[in-house]
């Protein structure tokens, strides 16, 4: 592990948290983002955002079946409703991958990120700028096999910070990070 004693950001966080700070260094990838967004679907905001696509997936083909039954034959409207329904299901099930791919340019521009999680909150520093999320702005987190994803408390928007486990200097720090998150946030 490298010596962080000269790093001002780390010293500030270490002193504010009483020495319980976890640092991650990583370059975000589309796969990281897809996994974080998939996990985000478990949050209330994520489920609320996917609900319209599930409804379109059910109502479109259902209404198409009613049209065919009443008409006695196939119509263009029924085919169109079925196709729209299939797209609704595709986005409800695979939307996290589509959205992650749309962030490819943003992730490439971010370059290497350095994130510090401590008693004050989560601070992300990358080539495009820094963001500090206080614990009071966060509502919960999800752990997957490769990431921790923390979410903001906004019920209308899915937002937060992605923390890939591969960014930890030592695999044992996963337990420290998990303990910090458990102490401050609800596990989703």
**Biggest sheet, strands in spatial order?**
1-2-3-4
In N-to-C order, the SSE pattern is HEHHHHEEEEEEHE
| Structural class category | alpha+beta
What's the number of helices?
6
- Report the sheet with the most strands, covering strand number, pairing sense and barrel closure: 4 strands, antiparallel
Tell me the distance between the termini: 31 Å
Under the CATH scheme, the architecture of the largest domain is Roll
The global form is: elongated
| Average pLDDT for all residues | 78
**Strand count:** 8
Q: What would CATH call the class of the largest domain?
A: Mainly Beta
Low-confidence stretches: 1-6, 8-17
In helices, the fraction of residues equals 40-55%
**Radius of gyration based on Cα positions:** 21 Å
How many domains? The number is: 2
CATH homology superfamily name of the largest domain: Pleckstrin-homology domain (PH domain)/Phosphotyrosine-binding domain (PTB)
CATH topology category name of the largest domain: PH-domain like
Estimated share of beta-strand residues = 15-25%
Summary, kept brief:
The chain has 188 residues and is an alpha+beta fold. It has helices at residues 8-16, 30-40, 44-71, 76-102, 104-110, 173-184, and strands at 22-26, 113-117, 121-126, 129-134, 138-143, 147-152, 160-164, 186-187.
């Amino acid at each position: 592990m490298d010596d962080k004693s000269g790093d001002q950001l780390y010293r500030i966080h270490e002193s504010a948290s009483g020495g319980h700070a976890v640092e991650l260094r990583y370059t975000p990838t589309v796969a990281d983002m897809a996994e974080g967004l998939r996990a985000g679907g478990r949050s209330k905001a994520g489920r609320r955002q996917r609900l319209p696509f599930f409804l379109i997936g059910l109502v479109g083909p259902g209404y198409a079946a009613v049209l065919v039954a009443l008409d006695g034959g196939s119509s263009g409207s029924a085919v169109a409703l079925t196709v729209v329904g299939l797209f609704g299901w595709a986005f409800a099930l695979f939307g996290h991958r589509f959205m992650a791919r749309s962030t490819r340019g943003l992730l490439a521009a971010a370059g290497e990120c350095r994130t510090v999680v401590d008693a004050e909150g989560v601070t992300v520093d990358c080539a495009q700028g820094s963001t500090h999320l206080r614990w009071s702005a966060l509502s919960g987190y999800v752990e997957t096999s490769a990431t921790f994803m923390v979410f903001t408390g906004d019920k209308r928007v899915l937002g937060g910070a992605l923390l890939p486990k591969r960014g930890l200097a030592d695999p044992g720090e996963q337990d420290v990070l998990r303990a910090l998150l458990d102490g401050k946030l609800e596990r989703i």
